[in-house]
Specification:
This protein has about 475 residues and is an alpha/beta fold. About 30% of the residues lie in helices and about 25% in strands. It is built from 14 helices and 23 strands. Bound molecules: adenosine-5'-triphosphate, magnesium ion (MG) and zinc ion (ZN).
Amino acid sequence: MEFRLLDLINMAKTHTKFVCQACGYESPKWIGRCPDCNEWASLVEEVVTSSKTPAKSGALATYSAPASIASISAQGAPRTSSGSGEFDRVLGGGVVAGSLVLVGGDPGIGKSTILIQVANHLSLNAGKVLYISGEESAEQIKLRSNRLGISSAELYVASETNIDAVEHYVDTVKPDFMFIDSIQTMHDAELASAPGSVSQVRGCTNTLARIAKSSGIPVFIVGHVTKEGALAGPRVLEHMVDTVLYFEGERQQSYRILRAVKNRFGSTDEIGIFEMREEGLVEVPNPSEALLSERPAQGTGSIVTATLEGSRPILVEIQALVAPSYFPSPRRTCSGVDYNKVLMILAVLEKRVGLSLGNKDVYVNVAGGVRIVEPAADLAIALAVASSLMDCTPDSSAIALGEIGLAGEVRAVGQAEKRLREAARLGFDRVFMAHSSAARVAKDIKTNAVGVNSVRSAIDAAFSGARQHRGEETAK
Ligand SMILES: Nc1ncnc2c1ncn2[C@@H]1O[C@H](COP(=O)(O)OP(=O)(O)OP(=O)(O)O)[C@@H](O)[C@H]1O
Ligand SMILES: [Mg+2]
Ligand SMILES: [Zn+2]
């Protein structure tokens, strides 16, 4: 009898449920705070009308019997080039058949632009492409395409938000590749909740996953990102797709960085660098050169370091400005580097080198909008700050490489030779780096390695050289 009663209660309640819009947690009644992700007021009532057959709502529509792994043949994911070396690099070497790729990024960063460019290339070289936009009309897509010089007979576009219609188009057009812009505008008529809600996003992604997996069509999906940086309707989505790419960059600057956040078919270390131009996103094959192109020839507070992005060394300029403070507690502002890391380096400069920064505002910036997470940039940050504070111009043909410890010591960084080769290629002839690794640098590298033990000795080496340099210049 008790069971009966429970069943009755459940039946009465199944027609609406409350779903956390941040993580997808479901509850039969409203609660103020999601017990799963701790978000406040994130639960929204959604109507449950779905009587979908399990085959339709699951991602795996086609049942296949378990098979011995030895008997399964896989030709090693066949990949198709997207037409952009940078895009391929981030995907792990090209587009994988049947994969689901989510592309996220801030509004207006260029998601639609890069995807229509990739769609165009695929349609010219690899097969039929279906491009569905729920955000723009066919005319708007055409206008953008005109600007980007895109007009391919094999590129089919539709302005559509109904996922069932999309499925119908797949049946009629029979594309080899598919693009959805964006998942938040798609809706499934069988689910009563509004487009963009977690249930809709999940339902539509399920349908797309089913299409991708059953037909082998790679599907690219645009996803919008909330202020906090999470893809809206998010955690749920990230688990359902094979690859999550994140498009980032300062909108005021022209450089855009494409990064893999998750990749079932490749590494997540690689980045692709693009430049936004009138004619669309153009890949930047030589990022170091591009990022250093606007560096002032002579100036205080600027020093170059070599950071590794995936397998690729990239030279970036670290800038610092130290100015008298008019605030009771001086400001420390940084972009592109970790705030706490900068505080630590400032403390080392005060305590171990004896520089006085207590009444100074300090600004640290990585030129070009790149974000550096690895500690190899520590020494460059310290030298840039010291240079601005002491008003000394460092040797502009030198780079700095090293992690700084709390005792003020300079430590070795990984894969130093790769970084030095890139520095030598761009004409840098000196590098300040940890003593231990400077001795081990291969003979064929042209950059002259200057070994330093501590931040203090690095500052001495960097600025005595600079003064000499200036001395020579005035002597001439
Ligand atoms: N005529 C133009 N010349 C140069 N750049 C342009 C031009 N028109 C648009 N852009 C660039 O394209 C960007 C918009 O690109 P796109 O529409 O691909 O972004 P999105 O990420 O898809 O945006 P949304 O989130 O609104 O869909 C603009 O922010 C601007 O930088
Ligand atoms: Mg768009
Ligand atoms: Zn939640």
